[in-house]
Design brief:
Helices cover 23% and strands 19% of the residues. It is α/β, with parallel strands linked by helices. It folds into 3 domains: 278 residues, 3-Layer(aba) Sandwich (Rossmann fold); 87 residues, no CATH class; 173 residues, no CATH class. A hairpin with a 6-residue loop joins strand 10 and strand 11.
Length: 577
């Protein structure tokens, strides 16, 4: 008997319910894609992606191509505060909100590279529940930090309790052992702290403590006297401390005049001079981010207002905040993902910083805010945000995609059929995703539409496959390769072709996904309706007996030539019929 293993976890109503997501194809709309007229520099990226559609379906659509390739994910999800924003309704009940976030977090984790990181902005309303949820999805050992962002610079006098002036930024690593944050650039203030009070030939310097927090019992080799050359006095480390360097290193520092004894040379402990070439070229980030350093809500609204003064976005994030995240988490040419794009700040900042980006947005502000904003960034006309700081001059571009339609629909007789809007290329790409193949059609070999390895291919067709056709395909594939054939129907013993596997569509995929479900968004109006009362298959919703419906076998309904598209009783694997 299996032993029950209890674990610490967050529970909520409906946690066990998980959607069977359809891996949709992405369809580019060239009229909405945009790029610069010419290349500004060699770092320009033109393959950035803006995806319009439900973000859960879009993440699933990206999974096959981008799993393990995203270096940094920044998301600013609806906070579930009960406030009705113009762009989206934010008042989803807690349990449902957690389920919707869990589904997205699991996909986001699969998209992250092993040395990647996730950054989530959230407020106190759901932060601590979200933290526990992220612990489940990413592993508690991969939690990095809870950063406090000062989003307001002054108190709200109309606050009923305490004035809320901060948000949280939860930071998780895909694998904390591999991930390390970058350093922040040294500030002008830090650089100005470098002086040269003793006119040392090497130039300006700063000083650091020459001791470390160890006892003489722990490090006896670091407990010894140093002679102050100005007074002739032997100086020992302060109580419960030792020198930071051994005797040999201290001798070198003395000979190089790297010890500083104060303006008058009378200090009771030396300090070590550090010159620009030996100082760490950056600073470690702290967990409290002041608005003076990374901006606040007012700054963010002004940035968006400049770009769209008619329809002001309600909850943008300042460009300086995103810049800090990307500075800590990425390098040039890394891929950044934001699946709650909002006003497009993440893409705009990533573009200016020379990172590649993917953004997903369902709301109409994808067109009213994001596209115009990115066009100005690409044209070098966005003069706000971090533009001057990073010396952005324009360049690059992006491709606009929308989610493809569902693959399976029902005909007038409720028979599942391939969506008539799919052309051959769309169908092949969709089946590649469903069967785990990369869509990579070969212009020279018609049956090589996709591959899972260098010797395993897929061929998708709506044709009826005869024995002669299959024989010809088998001969073309040869003995050292294999081919999966997805067709409308076939008639023969498939086991005679050792290098072929044959499946009928749509039967082969009917149970794989929730077909026709186009919206998994966080909007209340899009929540599923209560289930309807169960009705007999032989009666309509009013209880009346349905008329008998004819069976369809294809274009010629009078001839039953063998297993066809909607004959769901036919076996479709090797050795089947």
């Amino acid at each position: 008997m299996a032993k029950n293993i209890n674990r610490l976890e967050l529970t909520w109503i409906g946690k066990e319910n998980r959607p069977q997501l359809e891996p949709r194809i992405l369809i580019e709309d060239p009229d909405k894609s945009y790029h610069a007229d010419h290349r500004v520099n060699e770092k320009d990226a033109f393959d950035n992606r803006l995806i319009f559609g439900d973000n859960l379906l879009a993440l699933k659509a990206l999974e096959q191509e981008f799993a393990g390739k995203i270096k940094c994910i920044f998301i600013d999800p609806p906070y579930n505060t009960g406030s009705a924003f113009k762009q989206y309704d934010d008042g989803v009940e807690h349990s449902l909100w957690l389920s919707l976030m869990r589904d997205r977090l699991e996909l986001l984790r699969r998209l992250l590279s092993e040395d990647g990181s996730l950054w989530i902005t959230i407020d106190d309303n759901e932060c601590h529940y979200l933290k526990v949820l992220c612990d489940e999805v990413f592993g508690r050992n991969n939690f990095v930090s809870n950063v406090i962002w000062e989003k307001k610079s002054s108190p709200q006098n109309d606050a009923k309790w305490l004035s809320d002036n901060h948000d949280h930024v939860l930071v998780y690593a895909k694998n904390k052992i591999l991930w390390r944050p970058k350093l922040l650039p040294r500030s002008e203030k830090q650089n100005k702290n470098m002086k040269n009070p003793d006119n040392y030939p090497r130039g300006v310097w700063i000083s650091s403590d020459y001791t470390c927090a160890k006892s003489k019992e722990e490090r006896p080799n670091l407990y010894y006297p140093i002679l102050n050359p100005n007074t002739g006095e032997e100086i020992w480390p302060n109580h419960n401390r030792v020198w930071a360097f051994n005797k040999d290193s201290t001798k070198i520092n003395i000979e190089s005049n790297n010890l500083y004894w104060g303006a008058k040379g009378l200090n009771k402990s030396p300090r070590l001079k550090k010159f620009p070439d030996s100082v760490r070229q950056g600073t470690v980030a702290t967990t409290v981010w002041r608005n003076d350093d990374v901006g606040n809500n007012q700054e963010a609204k002004k940035e968006v207002n400049i770009l769209n003064s008619i329809d002001i976005f309600s909850t943008p994030k300042p460009e300086r905040l995103i810049r800090r995240v990307l500075t800590l988490a990425t390098e040039n040419n890394d891929i950044i993902l934001d699946s709650f794009a909002g006003s497009g700040t993440t893409g705009a900042v990533a573009h200016k910083m020379g990172r590649r980006w993917i953004m997903i947005e369902l709301g109409e502000h994808c067109h009213t805010h994001i596209i115009p904003r990115l066009q100005k960034v690409i044209d070098g006309e966005d003069l706000g945000g971090i533009t001057k700081t990073v010396d952005w001059k324009g360049g690059g571009g992006f491709r606009y995609y929308h989610l493809g339609p569902t693959l399976i629909v029902n005909d007038e007789w409720d028979n599942p059929i391939i969506n008539p809007t799919f052309n051959a290329a769309m169908l092949a790409e969709a089946m590649c995703k469903l069967e785990g193949f990369s869509f990579d059609p070969d212009a020279q070999v018609y049956w090589q539409q996709g591959k899972s390895t260098e010797a395993d291919f897929i061929y998708v067709t709506t044709q009826f496959m005869s024995k002669d056709m299959l024989t010809k395909l088998s001969d073309g594939v040869g003995p050292n390769r294999s081919l999966l054939i997805c067709c409308s129907a076939f008639r023969c013993d498939a086991s005679q072709f050792e290098n072929l596997t044959i499946k009928k569509i749509p039967k082969a995929v009917l149970t794989k996904c929730e077909w026709g479900h186009d919206d998994y968004s966080l909007e209340i109006e899009n929540l599923p309706a209560p289930p309807a009362p169960e009705v007999s298959k032989d009666t309509d919703s009013g209880g009346h007996k349905k008329p008998a419906r004819p069976r369809k076998f294809g274009k010629n309904k009078d001839q039953n030539t063998g297993p066809m598209l909607f004959d769901l009783d036919t076996t479709d694997a090797k050795g089947g019929k």
